Amino acid sequence: MAIRTAAAALSAQLLQWLVSESLVAPGRHRRQSLRCILASEPAGDTAALLPRCSCGVVSRARLEAHAKRLHRELKEESCFDDRHHHIRAQMFPPIHNADGAVTPGEFIAKWRVSELKESSASQEHFIDLCHLLGEPTPAEADPKGVWYGFEHGARKDSGGDGWADVWRRGCFAWEYKGRHADLDAAFDQLRQYALALENPPLLIVSDMARFRIRTNWTNCVSETHEFTLDDLADDAVRDKLKWAMSDPQRLRPGETRQAVTERAAATFAELAQGLRDRGHDPQTVAHFVNRLVFCMFAEDVGLLPDDMFTRMLEQARRRPDEFVEFARELFGAMAAGGRIGYEPVAWFNGGLFNDNAALPLDRDGIETALKAAALD
Question: pTM, whole model, 2 decimals?
């Protein structure tokens, strides 16, 4: 009985030190954790787990002797593990299974609570994503890092050097940012590298909770696929990411830029003809339609913030009689610089916006303008 009591005290001393060194989590399963750790270390290496000085009234020699005795007990019980797993791997196993697979639930749960910075988390996030999608990691697919890898150097269009966080030739360039980052700014940054990265067909940005895939084929309409971390529970969403990694042609838009240009020209011609049919001067109609076209362009490239022109048309669709008032307010702000409500509008110099004149559009005309604005 006395021997068992002494052994228990020795176990407590050893366990106390392991807890203080954060090698064992405190709690009701500490003893089990201790046995797990000891089982992962060969008996000759037990000293590495012990403090370098005496632990209270119990000497280091007695602690080491007790630890070795526990090893013998474990070995006799066939619990000894010759694989020598790292201690943290025993206590905090990775989210993937033995075959490397990660389930959607595991991936979502891990990255929903992550507060790591981009520099600390981006590569692990991408590797976990590869495991989730059943795709090889960059190192597995291209051990030399010639056509697939992390931190691929690129020359910016504006001068200076930069880095794509992940790049795969003929597939994608990927830029990571920290949580809640501006993904539009991330895309603008990535676009500066595109030519130096051999103009990949997909440009992808992510803050590890949101994903945005933008197609980048020459002479094709650009399409954007956007989804969140929770959306990865959907098979169809995961398919898009899988195609991006290894089969980007499946995300290629079906309509060419030429086809869209022709469709846009027909839409604007319809709008202009409707205004001329109502008796407006052809020159005035042409100037007004040019203003509408420029507003759509300025909205697409971010000069008019947050789809301002489209939102104006949507408001006017509800109240067509107020279209002229809405348009004059917008054109006036663009002519001199100003605000629409609380939103700033830049000054657009040149003769296109030398005044705030606008022609009236009925409901059908506003619908035609909205149809044109929806074209990329």
Answer: 0.50
